[in-house]
Structures are given as structure tokens and as C-alpha cells.
Amino acid sequence: MILVLGLSSVFAQVQSESPVLDPNFSHITFEKAKTFESPIGIERYQDGNLYIAGQKSLTKLNADGNKIWSNLYGKWFYSCNGIGIDNEGNVYVAVIDYQTWNALVLKYNPQGEVIKTQILSNGFDGPPLGIVFDSKYGRLYVSSYEEIHCLDKNLAFINKQITRDLFPDYGYIYYEVGLDVDNSGNVYVGGYKSGWNKSRYVGLKYAPQLSGLLWSTIGEIEPALDYLSDMVARPEGGMYIVGYEYDDNWNEEISVNYFTDSGAIGWKTNFFGWTDVTGLATDEVGNIYIGATFYDYSAAQLVKLDGETGKIAWRKLDPYGWSFTQSLVDEQDRVYAVGWPMEYVPGEDLYISRYLQGGQEDTTAPKAITDLEAINVSTDTITLEWTAPGDDGDEGTANSYDIRYTTVGFIISNMVFSSATQVSGVSSPQIAGSTETFTVTGLNMGTTYYFAIKTKDEAENISDLSNAVAVKTLGLYGIVSKSPETQIVTVGSTTAPMTSLVNVFNTTNPVSGIRVDFSISTYPIGSIGHELSKSSETTKAGLADVQLRLGDIPAEYGVMATCPDCIPSASTVTFKCCGKLKNDDFKQFDSRWKSEHYDNLCSTSPAYIKNRPVYSCDDPIFNNKQYTEYKFSIRAKGCGLTAFATVINYYKEAYSLPISSTTPFALNTYLKDNSGYGTGKYRGAVLFSEVLNISDSPDSYVDFLGKINICTNRKCKPKVTRNDLIKTINKDLSNNNPVIIRVYGHFMLVIGKCGAKYIVSDPGSGHTGLYDPNGNRKLIGIRQFRLIKKP
Fold it and tell me: What pLDDT, on a 0 to 100 scale, did the predictor assign at position 766?
């Protein structure tokens, strides 16, 4: 069908149906990074931001039409046609580099930075002619004279098709080629070829990813073709090709050709009175919108054709500008048009307007929700929260919410939203600014759900898409510990594995493939060097483990195992790792000292003295000079002496000091020779303050700072409390100085900290263990040491 309309009849037909300018978005001027360049593409992201590609620069406007940034592609770069945008807001343009003649694709992030560049062709193979991003399937398509490329969003090549061998009698497809995709991912190419005396339009349809040519068409345009302007795909399949023809009197007309999904001609419509058709767009039902210049350059103009019949639905002139160069239609059927203003003003290179269709009095949609989040999750419910928008933008009260979800991926386009599951029973909106909550029920446990919301007012104006949210329901699982929840480990060393087990709740059935997050939940202030080595999912046995390398302070480190998919009451396990200094424990009654003894007590121990060996004076070990020369009671000096020996060896090993290793016997001998023991009623007690040199080195490395005991007399000044001793011990430990502590009748060496308790090397019990300074055997004093110099 051919429909030819004169100018007067066109306006008579469509005058009452003309759209109106949106009062909140009309004639907004802006300047690009490069002035006086033609816009060659426009795209709108889901947040309402607009991207306009020119021949030399890319410009971003916010949802209100105000410029955010405008950046040049490059000094020698020139873009030919089109723009693409992915689901993450990244923008793609195809350019030619006139220094190298390489055809390139540039990928911009939303901040206007080039984050990826890909070379399409080298040398003089021709510039890129069209570009489009299929946001539904995540594919980018770029066409040139002879080739069409398919790339992924990271600009890696997937496939390509060669077009130069199609219709060999008519030469190449010329530079006016258009490129687009339909909702099914099929790819359409439109252009024209020119022979010696006839011009011909070309239409091609490829399967998704360019996996095969589905059909091609070539037709003679009569009586002659000036040139083909552009093409656009119909969303449900098929394509529109728009070009220029001349009637029998050589009057220029615009020709719109519709090809169905099968490649057959659906209709053809010609219009008189047009020039410079450059902006094409379609809406969701397939109507076509054309931006152009009025025939006498007195106004910019838009026209809408019915997609089923080709008839004019309306035609709009805008005398503010002399040409509309690009246009698009959003999901609310609002038409955006970019044009040249009638009068150039510095700083106002282009302008953009938005038109509202339908003549509605209320034309302002509610503002898009931007703070949608999940605030509570169970095994079968998810509670969402957001701030209520208004009826008009963020004012008033809207009419209804449309909450939808999928389980296959983020809802980041209107196409995905329309096919998602709609939630029922959502309450009506509250006044703008109110906090809204809604609980979605009947969900499957252990499943990730993706949500988004739109808001509608009473005039059926629909907001833009909200921010996308992903939430996973809890599984009916619980996590427990499968290894000791407390370990004592030398600082700087790695713990044994701390293993957690995920079971079906209240059973012994393990669950595999469940994520377990490990984190260092607590560590000493100032410590460095702690790190985790972990597995993140449970094995077939339901196990996940972690190892912690402790830092450099001998205190408590916490590790938390969290199961995000478990029920809240059984979702965490906490492991405790207590750091201790490196030390060679000496035990007061070590069996080694049968051959290297340090005490000459050879009488039978009284029965009331428990855990002490019974020595016979007839034992050959006592037939030695050392046992007749040094007569001191083990009860008086054994534990203190052993603790002191451990201190000396700790500093020697920790700092590689050139001092002699010390055994209790060697230390006993040294103390006797250097007045290290008390006399009288203190006979046999170790006098730490008299120990000036503890090795055969000419200079001392370890210094005794003194003793501090709890004050038992009111006259003591200053008064010393148990808390004072604890603070001093903690400070010494943080400086890697072990401390000998005194309890009633006993000495022990503090070498680390575990919560409120201390890790002690206990000569009396013969092992390393935990000690509570406020427990039954209370702390009453300390003996302090320090390293006074390093080698």
C-alpha cells in the first residue's frame, strides 16, 4: 500500500492528536565537548539518565535533562552512527581513528571514562557504520562496509558475518547502513546499494549472535533513490527502512518501508515536505517515530506512524529548533527529541525536549524508587523496605505499587520487569517520604530472588524502574563446630584447622555446597600479621574449615564462621585462638633432672607435700659434690627458679642473644655464686634483684625491673590493687615481655592472654594452661623483666 499525503491534508488528519511538551522537560539546552557536531545516537538508561553520541563526543544528561559530563572520544576519532548501552550503564560507541584508519569500539563507564578499547579492523577496511547493544542477551553488534561483528560486553569477539558477497552485482552496502535488534535477539541490517542506473534498498535479518542469515531482500526503488537515511527494528520482529525518493515531478519525498518478520513487504508510505530525516525510534508495540527538519527549515518536526497500517498518527512541529536529529521513546511512551536550536547561543549547542502523548492532564509520573532493600529474611519470606515516592515526582501520594521478582537474574530493564512474577496483595502507597514495608511470602528456602518496583499514579503514569535487589532466603540449616573452639598457638604461627559443620537443622545430615563466611572477629589492638586461609563452601561431608595465622601480640584472636543460608538462631560459630610467646617450658619435676638435678634434698618428702618425688639419699645421683655444696630447699626456690630459667631462654631464642642456654641447675649454681639467694628466714628464696648478669656474656641483656605485690597494709603507698597488676601484665605482654606472677606459695610465668585469663607456663603442674587472676588462686604479685638491648 502506498499512501501519499500533501502537507495540508496531513495536518488536517492529525492536528487534534498532536503530543504536548512536558512542562517539566522542555527545550533544555546543553553544550557538548565538541560544538557544531551532529548527534548520531541517543540512549536512555533505566535510572532515567540520557546518553547522546555525537560525531566527536559523548554527553551524559541526568533524568531532568541537565548535563553531567561531555567528553571527546579522542583527537583523531570520529563516530559514524549509533550508540549502545548495557545493563550496568556502560556505553559503547564505534569510531574511526583517522591517524591509523583503524575501526574501534570504545566502552565508557557511567562516569565517562574509557574502560575498554577493541580494534575491529585495520587499515582501510572502512569505518564502523552502525552499533547496537542487545541488553536482554548481553551482546554488542557493530557493522561496517563488509562485515558485521558480534561481541560480548567485555568486547571479546563472539562471531561475525561477511556482507560483501551478498548481491555482488550492486557493490557494497553504503555508509548509511542502520543496525538494530528485536526482542528475540535477531539482528537487522538496512542499507542500500547503487548500480549504474538504479539504486536498491537492502534488508538483512540474522539469527542471534549472527549464527546464520535468516533472510535478505533487495528491491529497486523507483523512480530513483537519493539515499537511504536509516532503519530501525520492530520490537516483535520486522524492520522499517526510511529513505528519500523523488516523485515524477522530482519533488523529494520520504519513503518508509515496513518489512515483516518473514521479510515480506508489509506496507510502504511516502510523505512530501520533508528533508534531513535522521532520528528513528519505535515504541513497545511497534509504532515508528521519525525526527526531521521541516521542508523550509522553519521548524523541527516529529511524526508518528501507526506500526500496523503506516498511517500518520500525529505530526508535531517545534519552531524552537530547525531540526530534530535523534529521538527515542521510553516505556511510558514519552518521546525524547534532540535538535538544533533555531538561534545558536554560546553554551547552548543543542536542545532536548520531551513530549507527552494522549492529552492527559496529569503527565508527571511518580519518581523512581532508589532505596529498595531487604530488611528481614526467613526460609520462605523476604521483607522489603523503601521510601514512598509521590504522585507527581516526589510530591503527593501515588496510586499503586507493582512489585515483581524473578529467580534468574537482576531486573534491570523494562523488558525483564514485564516478564517477571507480579506480587499480589501490596498495600496502597503512603504519602511521599513515608517508609514502606511489604513481606513477600510463599518463597522457596535457600533460593535467590531478584526484586524491583514500579509506581503508578491515578492517571496511569508509571515511574521508571527502581534499583534492583537480590536476596536469598534462608535454608533450614544450622552450623556447629567440629573442632575445639579454643586453641593456644604461638604468635606468628598458624592454628590447626578450625572446622565447622553445616547440617539440616536438628538432624545429623550434612549439607554440601553451602557458603560459609569466615572472618577475624576480634584481634588485639595494634597487632599485625594476622590472616585467614579458608574454604568458602561445605564439602560433601558438610565441612568448611579455616586456619588463622596469628599476629605479633600474645593475646586473644577471634574467628567467626557465618552461614548466611542458615536459620538465624544457628547461623554462626565463634572460634577462639589464644596467642602465646615462644618458650621452652621447664617443669619443676622434669624427669631429665635425674641426671642434671638442681636440688640436693635427699630425704623422703613429707606425706602432706603432694606431687613431689621421693628421693633416697642412697641414690647414685646424690653422690655428687653439687648436692653437698648447695643446700637449699626445693619448696623455697623450685618454681621461681624454673620460671626464671624459662624467661632467660625465651629472650635468648626470641632475639637470638649470644648468651648461654639456661637449665635450672646451671641457674641454681649461678645464683649461689652471685648472691642470688636469700639468707635467714628468706634462706633459699631467689633474690631476682641481685642477679646482675645471667650468662657468660660480659654484658647483661635481660634486666630485672623489680617486684610488685598487692598492698595488704593500709599504710602502703602507693596502694597496689589486683587490677593494677593486671594492667601491668597486659602492657608487658603487648611489648612481648613475659611476666613471672606470684600466687600463694607458688610462681608461674605468664606468656600469653586468652580473654580475661592468662596463658601460663606452670612449673608446679608441669604444663602450659590457663589461669584466672581473679579465680580461686588469686594473683598477689609480679616479677617484671625486659630486654635492655639487642645484639
Answer: 67
Element containing residue 646 per DSSP (H, E):
helix 634-655
CA pair distance 649, 739, nearest whole angstrom: 13
Q: Rounded distance, CA 451 to CA 456, Å?
A: 17
For residue 300, what is its C-alpha cell?
A: 523541527
pLDDT at residue 50 above 90?
yes
Q: Kindly tell me the sign of the dihedral angle through the C-alpha atoms of 320, 321, 322, 326.
A: negative
Measured distance CA(644)–CA(582) in Å, rounded = 15
Q: What is the pLDDT of residue 142?
A: 94
Contact between residue 699 and residue 773 where contact means Cβ atoms under 8 Å apart: no
pLDDT value of residue 637: 52
Residue from 263, 440, 270, 458 nearest 360 by CA: 458
Q: Which of 126-130, 134-138, 783-787 has the lowest mean pLDDT?
A: 126-130
Comparing CA positions, the residue from 3, 6, 2 lying closest to residue 251 is 6
**Alpha carbons 91 and 109: distance in angstroms, whole number:** 6
CA separation for the pair 773, 751 (Å, rounded): 14
Average pLDDT of the chain is 81
Per-residue pLDDT tens over the stretch 228-270: 678 899 999 999 988 777 666 666 778 888 999 999 989 988 8
Query: According to the 3-state scheme, what is the secondary structure of 302-315?
Result: EEEECCCCCCEEEE
| Element of type H or E holding 572 | strand 572-580
Q: What is the pLDDT of residues 368-391, one digit of tens each?
A: 999 999 998 888 899 999 999 987
- Percent of the chain residues past pLDDT 90, beyond the cut: 41
Lowest mean per-residue pLDDT among 298-302, 337-341, 709-713: 709-713
For the residues 755-781, what does the mean pLDDT come to?
87
- Lookup: cell for 622: 646424690
pLDDT for the residue 601 = 42
Extract the C-alpha cell encoding 540: 560433601
Could you tell me how far CA 738 lies from the centroid of its own chain?
44
Q: Which segments within 11-127 are labelled E, that is strand?
A: 20-21, 28-30, 39-44, 50-54, 57-61, 67-72, 77-79, 84-85, 91-97, 102-108, 114-121
pTM of the model: 0.51
CB 256 within 8 A of CB 268: yes
Count Cβ atoms below 10 Å from residue 127 Cβ, excluding itself: 23
Angle 2-18-49 (CA atoms, 0-180°, nearest 5)? 105
What pLDDT sits at residue 597?
Answer: 42
Please, is 31 exposed, middle or buried when counting C-beta atoms within 10 Å of its C-beta (0-12, 13-18, 19+)?
A: middle
Torsion angle of C-alpha atoms 9, 11, 17, 21, degrees rounded to 10 = 160
CB burial of 632-656 (b: ≥16 within 10 Å; e: otherwise) equals: bebebbbbbbbbbbbbbbbbbeeee
User: Where would I find the H helices in 397-537?
Assistant: 414-419
Contact between residue 702 and residue 785 where contact means Cβ atoms under 8 Å apart:
yes
Considering all CA atoms of the chain, what is the largest pairwise distance in Å, rounded to the nearest integer?
140
What span, in angstroms and rounded, lies between the C-alpha atoms of 748 and 765? 10
Nearest-angstrom CA–CA distance, 223 and 335: 34
Report whether 116 contacts 89 (CB < 8 A). Answer: no
Phi, psi of 342 (to 5 degrees): -65, -40
Q: Which residues contact 288 (CB under 8 A, 6 or more apart)?
A: 232, 240, 256, 280, 281, 282, 304, 305, 307
pLDDT band at 491 (very low <50, low <70, confident <90, very high): very high
Alpha carbon distance 91, 135 (integer Å):
11
Residue 747 CB burial class (10 angstroms; 0-12, 13-18, ≥19): buried
The three grid cell numbers given for residue 106, joined into one nine-digit string: 570504545
| Average confidence (pLDDT) over 604-611 | 43
How many Å separate Cα 82 from the centre of its chain? 30
Rounded to 5 degrees, φ, ψ at 480 are -135, 170
Distance (Å, rounded) from C-alpha 671 to C-alpha 692?
A: 10
